[in-house]
Amino acid sequence: MKKPTSFGIWANTDKTVFWDTFPSIIDWAKKNNLQLFITTRIESRLKNSDFDYKLINNADDFNKVDFVLSLGGDGTILSLARAVAERGTPILGIHLGELGFLAEVVLNDMYSRLDEVLNGDFLIQKRMAIKCSVLNENGSKTFHALNDIVVDRGKSHRLLNCELFANGNFVADYKADGLIASTPTGSTAYSLSSGGPIVIPTFGSIVVTPISPHTLTLRPIVFSDDHILTISFPKNSHGDMALAIDGQVDEYLNPAAKVEIQKSPFEINMINFKDSNYFSTLRSKLGWGVRGSN
Length: 294
Known about the structure:
This protein has a 6-stranded parallel β-sheet, sandwiched between helices. The protein has helices spanning 16-31, 40-44, 74-84, 110-118, 190-193, 278-286, and strands at 6-11, 35-39, 54-56, 68-72, 91-95, 105-106, 123-136, 139-145, 148-152, 160-166, 169-176, 178-182, 205-211, 221-224, 229-232, 241-245, 249-253, 258-272. The chain is built from 6 helices and 18 strands. It has 2 domains: 6-122 and 273-286, Rossmann fold, CATH 3.40.50; 128-265, Sandwich (Tumour Suppressor Smad4), CATH 2.60.200. The protein is globular and about 60 Å long. Strand 10 and strand 11 (169-176) form a beta hairpin. By secondary structure, the chain is α/β, with parallel strands linked by helices.
């Protein structure tokens, strides 16, 4: 990537630490002669706008910046990834949350890492996204997710009944609280807490993990990323099943609905560095090798 001349900020504006940090980011941008872009949400909460900035008014404005700084937790990066989508603008995650796997940089290292980006001393890691097409009674909708697509029983207290097909081939009937289809990136999120495997982020695959299945022999399954998965609900007697995209977008389904999941036609460009170590992150975040308290 060429030497950056501009960057955007996407942030969790509910976090006090963001507002504490924001003035110094402005100073860093000014010092390095970088054009700063901010979201309309940030602008709406500014108490002092006495600095030079431009607005990200819509998703196409991401084409105007060389990279985007995400300040928050994993949810902040996920929402940014969906907004950037096929535009390919690189994302650098700054971790302001609690447990998070996606943000590459902690706050204390932010400016040294930003200087590396400015000097071109960084790598781009391409992360697979998945596309979800929903055919419902209200018509069809399309979503993209960096982490996962979740279908669950929604407002009902009954188990979800659904069928899974892969490339048109019947896989299994599921009777469970729900079904998770995750990317490799999302394998350390909801899928992991439901017993799914950890998948290396660059390994092209879709993991399907049942949530509390009624039949314990129904185990998580890993499909290669050239599979098209279809979930239908012919045996489900109740409506209002819920569909969640990265845990943030809700859609309700009726028993006649079909959900089709496949690899998205684009990838999300995440900035990382030569000394980044995914396995070190796993050990740290998951506490591998650390004994519990007696």
